[in-house]
Amino acid sequence: MTATVLTARALLLDMDGTLVNSDAVVERVWRRWADRHGLDGDEVMKVVHGRQGYASMALLLPGRPMEQNMADNARMLAEETADMDGVVAVPGAAEFLASLRGLPHALVTSADVPLSTARMAAAGLPLPEVRITAESVGASKPDPEGFLKGAAELGVDPGDCVVFEDSGAGIAAGRSAGMRVVGVGPRAGFHRPDLVVRDLTRVRVEPVGEGVRLHVG
Q1: Residue 83 pLDDT more than 90?
Q2: pLDDT band at residue 210, thresholds of 50, 70 and 90?
Q3: Chain mean pLDDT for the chain
Q4: Structure confidence at residue 42 (pLDDT)
């Protein structure tokens, strides 16, 4: 298969499902939550990837006051941060991040600072210098705020950024931000990113001028 070549000034990277495989923890925590609220666990799992917890809860329990969702979200984040069992790097993530050293890139995640720090450490991955976390934004993916903030922090026009994402909410956020999106992993292909790869072993980074050339596929 011939690789597709993209050029960009900066890369914006989701964490869960893109750099870190945390599906085991997400499944445990959210299925317990579904049981507590009498919801179907499989239906809940279709919603939660990529979004901040309170945003998922608002979709799943539409009649519930947002204050309850925010309080529940804080408890869930604490549960997730305490549970690193099964958290591993996505294949190729360590090499991919190493190849970005000195190049413009940022982490854009729906996790908060404690959870993102813990998960990246558990997966043995270095944290990018520029990080947009749950604390940085007022709106969760699929809102484009996080990606637009990442581009602004790097001083790069949104159209010159490439997003790496795995979830429907994240891919929609990248598209809404006016960015090209590379989907990573089995979930991504269902949400029509510009390109999709099995994992990060299928991406090669080449520094060029003021940005990067990506060989994808």
Answers
A1: yes
A2: confident
A3: 96
A4: 97
The CA-based angle 160-162-165, given to 5 degrees, is 155
As given in the structure block, the two tokens for residue 34 are: 């579904």
- Please give the pLDDT value at position 2: 78
Q: What is the 3-state secondary structure (H, E, C) of 69-135?
A: HHHHHHHHHHHHHHCCCCCEECCCHHHHHHHCCCCCEEEECCCCHHHHHHHHHHCCCCCCCEEECHH
Contacts of 82 (CB under 8 A, 6+ apart): none
Which entry of 16, 23, 112, 160 is annotated as an active-site residue?
Answer: 16
Rounded to the nearest 10 degrees, how much is the dihedral formed by the CA atoms of 93, 94, 98, 103? 30
Q: Following DSSP, what letter does each residue of 30-66 receive, concatenated?
A: HHHHHHHTT--HHHHHHHHTTS-HHHHHHHHSTTS-H
14 is catalytic: yes
**Residue among 66, 61, 127 nearest 94 (CA):** 127
Q: How far apart are the first and last CA of the chain?
A: 7
DSSP state of 2: P
Contact between residue 73 and residue 54 where contact means Cβ atoms under 8 Å apart: yes
Catalytic entry in 14, 72, 143, 160: 14
Q: Using one digit for the tens of pLDDT, what is the confidence trace for 65-81?
A: 999 999 999 999 999 99
What would the mean pLDDT of 30-53 be, rounded to a whole number?
Answer: 96
